[in-house]
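Chapter review: from sequence to fold.
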Amino acid sequence: MAESVFAVQYTYTDDVDRVATFRPEHRAHLAELHAEGTLLLSGPLSGGPAALLVVRAESEEAALAALEGDPFLRERVIVDREAREWTVVIGELPGA
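The token string follows.
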């Protein structure tokens, strides 16, 4: 199966201290995924404790599985995750 692009939305806990405690480890992990080409883009969303990650994977399940090692998931900073296939119509994604 060919790889596709998936938008993964993270929803975080409202505990800002917990988020801050594990943020450096979380960002280091995401930097590793970016260096290997799995993670294309990542960043926080405005309007609440959430983030959007764009990953390359074979399925929604594989996109979430690729992010299983995230320290935010391990430490229960992430309270919800959703992956959806994303077809880019205008513009180009780096590495896609």
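Two observations follow directly from the output. The helical segments are 16-35, 60-66, 71-74. Residues 4-85 form a domain with the Alpha-Beta Plaits fold (CATH 3.30.70.1060).
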